[in-house]
Amino acid sequence: xxxxxxxxxxxxxxxxxxxxxxxxxxxxxxxxxxxxxxxxxxxxxxxxxxxxxxxxxxxxxxxxxxxxxxxxxxxxxxxxxxxxxxxxxxxxxxxxxxxxxxxxxxxxxxxxxxxxxxxxxxxxxxxxxxxxxxxxxxxxxxxxxxxxxxxxxxxxxxxxxxxxxxxxxxxxxxxxxxxxxxxxxxxxxxxxxxxxxxxxxxxxxxxxxxxxxxxxxxxxxxxxxxxxxxxxxxxxxxxxxxxxxxxxxxxxxxxxxxxxxxxxxxxxxxxxxxxxxxxxxxxxxxxxxxxxxxxxxxxxxxxxxxxxxxxxxxxxxxxxxxxxxxxxxxxxxxxxxxxxxxxxxxxxxxxxxxxxxxxxxxxxxxxxxxxxxxxxxxxxxxxxxxxxxxxxxxxxxxxxxxxxxxxxxxxxxxxxxxxxxxxxxxxxxxxxxxxxxxxxxxxxxxxxxxxxxx
Length: 454
Hints:
Largest sheet: 6 strands, mixed
CATH topology of the domain at 313-453: Serine Threonine Protein Phosphatase 5, Tetratricopeptide repeat
Strand content: 5-15%
Structural class: alpha/beta
CATH class of the domain at 313-453: Mainly Alpha
């Protein structure tokens, strides 16, 4: 009898807990579609990754709200997708997801209607829900969208303005129609930059990007009117530039990649009070290194990587000491900002979960050169198998450890040393790595595997 009472109480508690929060189903994509169609509900998808801080915060706070949960459980079948899992990685890509968390609002047959990116408070998510409900109940808007080719330039402009920053599926076709009507009018292009920047995406032509950059001015960027909105839109535009860069790399199109870098450089010029040409040149060289490594252009990578290390890495002890001094200033600045600003404190606490996280955030000058040595030496060992280049890679890998004793630096150096038959030295590094204060489970696992391979 006692066990029966306990079971009943647990069942009641479980039912209450479901009502008091968003009820995420543990079902496959096909099962989700079947259930949504059967119950005539929309589909709500939370796309996350295991390492994403804002994703965890969203689950622990916003999704736990009783009123929000009650409302959404009535209208949605809700599911969670791990964007890095085998089951959902491809699905997430198909919906154009490239940052986390991303929330998808879908029809019962799985068609994308609305997309929300980033952490949202309870109130903010309620507002996003209202936008979605309005899209589904606004008959006048639906009629306009269906007959968008008949809409005037002004009608298209009004709809696009109303839904600035909102990631709604129908906006793409409306924007393409709108842009075709104004693209030859320089005045219109300048006056409607917010709309253009908000809607341009990775599928639009480089010519469009170049025309947009030509019309952006510093006064537009630093205009205090709707500053928050402006920052969000420019931030998304930068992400789209990165997507164009990625696409050019995938296509192994050197000319396109150069054009995208130029677009990126022009934007940096326009949003900088004090444009630093040397820093931009350095960044461009690093971008080309990534391009050559991804496209396996070995000769170009070999030549440029040597130039980069010669130009930007100073191996002297005095220089490393000076970097630590600069990092100590960063540490003091962050500490002061955390004391004075609650938002900075919260953001810092969200980002820092381990000693390693803390070191990476507070030692930006030291880590810059150390990471450069690590990245290039690692890529060398992947691209080249001749003794001369592997020997050079081992020197850079060992030098990275002079900056900071990160476990992945040890692992990289040990792997290269094993390749050039310096197993004793590799074993010494592995033993030393096991003492690192930054060691995590994955590092330990990889070190043990390396140890067994010697």
